[in-house]
Fold:
Amino acid sequence: MSFITGVGLTSFGRHEGSSSLDLMSKAAELAIADAGLKRAEIDGVLCGYSTVAPHIMLATVFAEHFGIRPAYAHAVQVGGATGLAMTMLAHHLVDAGVVRHVLVVAGENRLTGQSRDASILALAQVGHPEYEVPLGPTIPAYYGLVASRYMHEYDVRQEDLAEFAVLMRSHALAHPGAQFHEAITVADVMASKPVALPLKLLDCCPVSDGGAAFIVSRERTGDAGVRVRGCAQAHTHQHVTAAPALSELGAEIAIARAKQAAGVAISDIRYAAVYDSFTITLAMLLEDLGLAGRGEAAARVRSGHFNQDGAMPLNTHGGLLSYGHCGVGGAMAHLVETHLQMTGRAGNRQVRDASMALLHGDGGVLSSHVSMFLERVR
Amino acid sequence: MSGEQAMADWTKGEPAIAYQTCGACGGLQYFRRRFCAVCGSAELVEHRAGGEGTVYATSLVLRAATPETRAHVPYNIVLIDTSEGFRMMAHGDHDLAIGDKVTARFERFTDRLIPYFAKSK
Structure:
């Protein structure tokens, strides 16, 4: 058994003058306070990576900086799936009795700490160094390739993908911490600058500064009871050139394993937190996870299905697309928002019922997947 | 590779596309390794591909990340399913559509020689 006992999230956007360690510390402090714990009670630390300040031992660099001496600490690297992979590991660590309270933390000054080119270049290195990177692809191009194929096989149009950007923006408007605060329309997305077709600027998440953290504990530390019901991973490839057919991607494998581990069905889910680095990522994952029929996710967006007051509220903070993306912390914001929803603390974004949530993360080019069910217990 | 030299291909600056087949299980791979990724055998044979294939996916890049690649914008990144049976990334004509039959040639991109596909004649 494990519980998410506290969460912390900074605003995303520009944090001029803040280092990655500063942003990690800020989020960690918020999460520890939220759990009602003292720093000294944290006996485990799992952290992500920083592309701005790479280090071979970031967890101990952070622990020293933050002023704690954990019994267990290291970094984890699974791209965009890192946050949920760390949560899964923390769940097993406390469940096995290795430690009592794991601080899961990430933060990066990715926007102000380096040029946008440097950021794009660093991320493009997930491509194959000999067979892909020399061709000049970018992360949007890797996903652009996948998008072109998905649109071809399932008759999805660019206007359909645009719906996801509009939805995430409309959700971000209700969160003061989001990077973007201006409403957009499908026409705005269609007219935005082409980046790697079929993806345009508003189909892509931004580069942000920010930090996120949470505490995973063996027992609850307060009234809030949010527990990890079950989780699983799947890793089918690294490079898009080596990806399996669209019908054999890792999201379907991970969710099948997670459903098995948790004893939960898709019909039990009341809230969804799904990785959305690009509009195509969100569209594909929703369909792979079974939250929409094949090629039908956009229609579900249009019908209000994923709205705050819809049947399956989705990324009510605005997701990577509009809350922002600061690297590992980006997708951790999905879990923070889920926790606020499950504990009735989401304020003007509060949904009616978030008693069972599905979270899904994706790293690389749909390479690494983590599916997780969180359950509220009384 | 049974001790033989790796065949020079575009990744080594030569105008060729190479791939490997496994003498033990018949597996086929594009990313060069010293073993078969299907069965682990070291009995690999290197081949030169004919340069024919079908377009699997395309993405026209308009925003590049380095000064060197920016000089080439726009360029079309494509995934090609070769007639030999492996998938590869390359560049291609801007009007290529998924399913088009294509043939490779080699073009300069930054300081490299890269495979470039156009519709088969």
